[in-house]
Amino acid sequence: MRKLSKILPLFVIIAMLAGILAACAPAAAPATEAPTAPAAVEPTKAPEVAAPTVAPTEAPKAEPVKLSFWYNWEGANGDIMKELIDRFNTANPDIQVEGVFQPYADIMTLFQTSIAGGTTPDMAALDLILVPQLVETGAVASLDEYIAKDANTKLDDFYPLLANYDVMNGKRYALPVSTNNMQLIWNKDLFTKAGLDPEKAPATWEEMQAMAEKCQDPANGVVGFEYFTQPTGEGITWQFQVWLWAAGGKFLNDDNSAAAFNTPEGLNALTYVSDMLKGKGASPAPWGLFGEQKACMQLDGSWLFGYRKDAPFQWGIAAVPAPAGGSTASNVGGEHLFMFDASPNKEAAWKFMQYITSTEVQLEWDQRTGFLPVRKSVAENADYLKWVNETEPRMLPFVQGMAAAHTRPATSKYFAVSDAFSREIQKALLGESSPADALAAAEAAVNEALK
User: Fold this and answer.
1) Which residue segments constitute the domains of the chain, with CATH numbers given?
2) Is pTM, for the whole model, over 0.70?
3) What is the mean pLDDT of the chain?
């Protein structure tokens, strides 16, 4: 009985728990009868739920093509180029160009390092005289295939003497993007003092020598015309080439493999200059007399507006005088634009090159920087000519002179050639050698440098 009394409460507890669990569990349907719904009550409909709206799957936006562009324009010109790049980027969100300034003094070393390391930029603008050195490495891409399928490039709109520079070994590697040239500048105050018409510049070699002789004043250290005679180097070569081309001569032959200046035309040019330097309107001296008002005339470039604008004397600009039977001529500088062959985005690079060399952009670039037109369509543009006449009318001879502005030879050996040439030609300029002997010696030295 004691055991039973102990077990009985346990059964009671189990029974109570079973009851509670039964109450909480859902009622089971009877096995033999279907449930009967009340007749007066209709089944409740589930509320209609709109199908969820699925947003269409959008492809992720492609990253813009990124291009690097090296140049050595600085100061105001560099700022203007940045503006033009930003404008291109805004108009072409699928292409983003990053302009990178590289100092002129370092740029060739940087190019050489980038070529060796496979890290070249996509594009670059460079002093035209340095471009052949990069082309020779094989790192610069030919533009022929892009130009062939692009009618908007209009190669014939570029000045041919300027644009032909970029054709090397039968292929075009660059396009002009900025330029300058040299013309004659004269001191009107010194002309007046010498009894010359201050508003009339010489148009021929004969007139130039006559005016120089009349304007010179040896007693006061004034020369009629300032020639670059010292030191040797590009200064002598750069300026003498103008007289050579005006006489109808050539500096190197067509493939830049040999000297071409030891000719009757070359002798005519060197004889004219060296004779004047014998006191017949000119005298050898270090460069800089014109700025000191000690020279009546000289050749100077379109960049002079930066430092002659506020000169303490009146001055004018005229075309380089021409010899009898010859024509005016000039020498150009400036930058040319190209792309590297290693660029994986040449089509995008070409689109930027089209933009920056277009007539519309070049028109703005030239007006804001003072560079001369590389395109005839800019030089002949009515708005551009109006701007020149209203802003600085003395710029007009430089603009008009682009038609007769030559380039130096497109050879990677140019600086060696220039040094060799200047060393021998200087002897004639200083009266240490005859023009004929100096030309012959220069021819031999230049041909040696070209080997």
Assistant:
1) 65-179+334-406 (3.40.190.10), 181-332+411-449 (3.40.190.10)
2) yes
3) 89
